[in-house]
Structure formats: C-alpha cells, structure tokens
Amino acid sequence: MKLKSRLKKLRQELTTLKCKVTDILKASAVVVVRVTMAVAFVASLVYVSARAPEMHGYWIRDKVGSRSYKIYEPKVGSGSGFAVVAASGTTYIVTNDHVCGMSKDKVTLMVQDRDGNSMRRRIIKQSDRSDLCLLEGWPGVEGLSMSRSAPDIGEVVNAVGHPAGYDITMTRGEIIQRQDIVIIVGPISFIDQQTGREQLVPAADGGITVAQCSMYKNRIITIDQTFFIFTFKVKVCTNVTEGAYMTSMIIQPGSSGSPLVNFYGNVIGVVFAGDQAGWGAAVSHKDLTDLLKSY
Length: 295
Description:
This protein has 2 domains: about 60 residues; about 160 residues, Thrombin, subunit H (Beta Barrel). The chain is α+β, with helices and mostly antiparallel strands. The protein contains 3 helices and 14 strands. The protein is about 25% helix and about 40% strand. The protein is elongated, with a radius of gyration of 32 Å. The strands form 2 sheets. The protein has a 6-stranded antiparallel β-barrel. A 6-stranded antiparallel barrel has the order 7-8-11-14-13-12. The model has no long low-confidence stretch (mean pLDDT about 85).
C-alpha cells in the first residue's frame, strides 16, 4: 500500500512539474515572440527613418509632377509650368512671363503633360508686377494648392520642372534669403562716342523701345558696356522681381516656371532665374497669391 501511495504521489508531482515546464515554455515563447516583434519594429523604424527623405522625395515628385508641364513654342524654346487652384476654385497653369514671351502669336503656347500629350493653351494674364503668367488649365486636372503662408528662411523646399526640356526632374534646397532680382530684358539706346548723341538700338540687334519697358516691374537703367577696347554707356530695360527667394537649388535653363513647394507639396513660389553659380531664384508666395486673387 505504501508503495502504491508513493507511486501515486510521484505521478502527481511529475504531472505538476510537467504543467510548470509547459507554462514556462509557453511564457518563454511569448517572450521570444514579443522580443522578435520589438526587434522587427525597431529595425523597421530604422529602415524607414533612413529612407524617409528618399521616400518623401518620391511622393513630392509624383504629387507635383502629375500637375507639372513642359511649356514650349516649337523652334523657339521651352520652360516649365504647373497647375494651381486660384481663389475662385478654378485651375490655371502658372509659368513665367518670360516663358509666355516665347509665344509666336502672343495668344497661345504649347503645353505638354508628363505622359507626352500636348495641346495649345490660351494666355490668360501676363503680370505687370512680377515674372508670372497664367494660362488656361489642362482639362480634367485639379491644380496644386497654395500654401497658407510664405516660407521661412532656412526652410527646405523642392522644385519640379523640365530643365533643358528633359522629363520631370526634382531638385531640393533651402531658402537662403530674400532680395530683389534684376534681369536685363534688352538694350534701348547707347551714347555714340563720336557725336555724343543717343542712338537707338535697332530691333534687329535685340533693341526694345521705352514703350515696351513701361510696366511696373520694369526699370530703365544705364550701364557701361565694353566692346573690344571701347566702353559705351548703354540704356537698358530691366525686369525687377521684388522680394524674390534666393535658394540653394541648382536651376538650369528650362526650369523657369517650375513650382516651388514646401514639405507638404503646397505651392510657395515660382522659379524664374538662376545666378552665375546656378542657384535658383523664385517669385514670392505673396506675388503669386496676389495674382491668383483676381481669378
């Protein structure tokens, strides 16, 4: 009897021990699973963090690129443009005034979307205050939204356009400062050194008239122009863009009219020029907002 009792007690203890071992194994499995999940989660965070700028760039390029266009006139040249929603809710295409200046008929320009489809769009308004121009919107396309506020100095920004007429290209930089940008539009006249009289520059040589330099954004100034060993006083028409954004973005010909957008892909300006180092300048948020208020 004692032997049976001891065997029974031993079986009970073994059963209890087995249950405890099973519980320990289950608990260990849960811990392993949780540790594995935690490690995977941390690894995912590290991966996403490392690729976040790249992923954000892809997102900006797709969002803005789907509403960006190549603006061109065959055998003349090309620039960039983009769809944006005006104050009325209507979508227009925005580019630079000097891009609209390529139009042969002074009424329309060719617009090409990222899929290669082209159509002529009518020029709606060439701004007399800054280097901006509005065209008819692309049918069925809703434009980008304007940012509610202007960018800060040091803010990271992106531009999406068609440098040198290439396919959609995105460039990134930051706002360096604000300043007035002066660009020479063309010569008006020069002082003849022999007679001391003012002589008009012929249109065939790129000359323009005072009447063609009468808009608010234009200024007439006199500069020294050297030709071989001779220096002439030349009166030129300049285009002044007040309070423009200077950026660290590298801008190439053909990028004129590209949208300058913030982190969220909202429009904060319009690229219009590059300096000798290639750094890009953009028309301000205020100038574009003021233009769109009337449309």
